[in-house]
Amino acid sequence: MSRTRAEIESEIMSLLRDNIRNIVPYSTARDDCKAKMDIYLDANENPFDTGVNRYPSPHQPKLKKMLSVLKKVPEENIFTGNGSDEPIDLIFRMFCPPGKSSMVQAVPTYGMYSVAAAINDVRVIDAPLSADFTLDADDLLSRVEPDTRLIFLCSPNNPSGNLLDRDAIISILDRFQGIVVVDEAYIDFAESPGFTGLLSQYPRLIVLQTLSKAWGMAGLRIGMAMADSCITGIMSRIKYPYNISVLNQSKAEEILSDPLKAADRVKELIAERTRLSEALSALPEVLKVYPSDANFLLVRFRDKDKAFAALMEAGIIVRDRSSAYNCAGCLRITVGTPEENDRLLAVLGASRAQAGSRSPVLAGGRKASVFRKTGETSVCVRSDLDSFRPPRIATGLNFLNHMLEQIGYHAHIALDVICFGDLETDDHHSVEDIAIALGDCLDSALGDKSGIGRYGFSLPMDEAEATVLIDLGGRIDFLWDVALSGEKVGDVTSVMFRHFFKSLSEHLKCNLHIKAAGENDHHVIEGVFKAFARALRQAVGRVPGGNDIPSSKGRL
Q1: What is the CATH number of the domain that holds 336?
Q2: Averaged over 245-267, what is the pLDDT?
Q3: Are residues 167 and 224 in the same domain?
Q4: What does each C-alpha distance from 504 to 22, 74, 155, 458, 496 come to in angstroms?
């Protein structure tokens, strides 16, 4: 049975400490005046411009907007802090009366949970993971006491590296009446969607993530707590006013604007993790390399002190985790660059055969990347016409995300589209610039178009029908015969779909004729995107044995 918003907020508020529930937050100058002004004489700042003479935004709206697009979580459900350590501390301060409450953590785990608990005078109850670091929900819940307010779960876990069982975590969420924190600092290295998609279903769930690991921003100290807006709102009320500096916000926004670069590095680290695991497993002095979904490996040695000393002498430092629960004899080894991993393996005595070969960086083929930045948008598009994997789409427009995914799936190509746009104005610039970048990217991937089918396709969609005809011959002509009854389809303005395909045809340099009709606008547009994708698949497909330009003129 679904609950009202008032009932959810009432439940969360009942879990708060009395003083937190009743606190009057500090109001910054920017809280009192949010409008853009010509002269600021309200915050006692130094008026001479040094680049950092003004206080930073206390609520980081631009940063949260970018994170909202990437994480597909509404801005109001995101709290950004000084590392993940800040929200961890705030969670204890919000929900745990000092000296009168406890928390449960699955061990071994990240040490800051216990440190934050001690600082806030909260008793720690350890719930051991199994010998292979799996989570037993029944055992953990059996350790919950009447004063237990929090449960902390780290997944992928630190230091073991493994994802905790999803069903076990859901069982805990269903059965525990307090706050459940799932720390996903390493989720970008795992083949798992994580738990952000369940936030609306579980209002007592808090998901922690960070920009330190996959994004390479450890020096900026920016962490995230994603939760019900009631929880993130309270966090914003009790945090220190200017918790993330101007420079840190600006640099984070710069790095986030090109997310495909970070994705490439994650892909390489995952490949190196596999190589490192296989090479270490082949060494006689290694007893076990634990499976990892993170950017590190937990490795049990016959003589961990000898291995640690050898690495130290060679100028390589790893983490001794042998004192952690069930980690006797274990070192935690972060996955480094290929060159760093080669050095580590050489010190530990791995032969060339044992070290394995580095994962090749595949070049050539019909691949392309486009990065388009304007005053209104920043768009990254990548395509590979000769391979497929699930598309990675994040535009800030949910319906457009869904439609762009159809291109990847039904054209059977690898496709990434990431856009940060001025959606607070409207969706025009985002839709247009995505179409331009997508057209440029596909055109670049096609190269001289030798050996392709060139033409293509028609598709029914429930009660709707859509016909898309395409010619990649280089001449540009666009026809649109699609009737839509509503002002919007999903969260996209209806007239923008014509504009999308017109801009796409101009930059893909193709004839594109689209005709569609039906009773349901959603089905009509979905039919158009799927038909376009199938037409594209046919047109870019290679003709068996054909390497010629698909034209009697010998050129396009």
Answers
A1: 3.90.1150.10
A2: 94
A3: yes
A4: 54, 29, 41, 19, 12
Return the closest-CA partner of residue 486 out of 377, 399, 394.
Answer: 399
Average pLDDT over residues 178-189: 98
Using alpha carbons, select from 245, 224, 248, 247 the residue that is nearest to residue 236.
224
The domain in which residue 305 lies consists of: 262-355
Buried b or exposed e, range 346-382, using 16+ CB within 10 angstroms: ebbebeeeebbeeeeeeeeebbbbbbbeeeebbbbbb
CA–CA distance, 531 with 458 (Å, rounded to integer): 6
Of 384, 370, 441, nearest to 415 by C-alpha is 384
pTM beyond 0.85: the answer is yes
What angle separates helix 338-347 from helix 259-281, to the nearest 10 degrees?
20
- 398 lies in the same domain as 530: yes
Task: Kindly tell me the burial class for residue 493, based on how many C-beta atoms sit within 10 Å of its own C-beta (0-12, 13-18, 19 or more).
Answer: middle
Q: Do residues 242 and 266 share a domain?
A: no
- Judgement on whether residues 50 and 196 belong to the same structural domain of the protein: yes
144 three-class SS = coil
Q: Report which DSSP code applies to 218.
A: G
446-496, pLDDT tens digit by residue?
Answer: 998 888 888 876 656 566 789 999 999 888 999 999 999 999 999 999 999
3-state secondary structure 316-369: CCCEECCCCCCCCCEEEEECCCHHHHHHHHHHCCCCHHHHCCCCCCCCCCCEEE
549 is a domain residue: no
CA nearest neighbour of 311 among 293, 281, 336: 336
Domain boundary among 297, 322, 355: 355
Looking at the structure of the chain, the number of domains it has is 3
CA distance 248 to 154: 26
Residues 294 and 373 in one domain: no
HSE, CB side, 13 Å, CA atoms: give it for residue 223.
20
Residue 279: burial class (beta carbons within 10 Å; 0-12, 13-18, 19+)? buried
Cα 45 to Cα 55, 59, 248, 390, 455: the distances in Å are 8, 18, 19, 49, 63
Q: Are residues 57 and 170 in the same domain?
A: yes
Which of 233, 255, 277 is the last residue before a domain boundary?
A: 255
Q: How many CB atoms lie within 10 A of CB 506?
A: 16
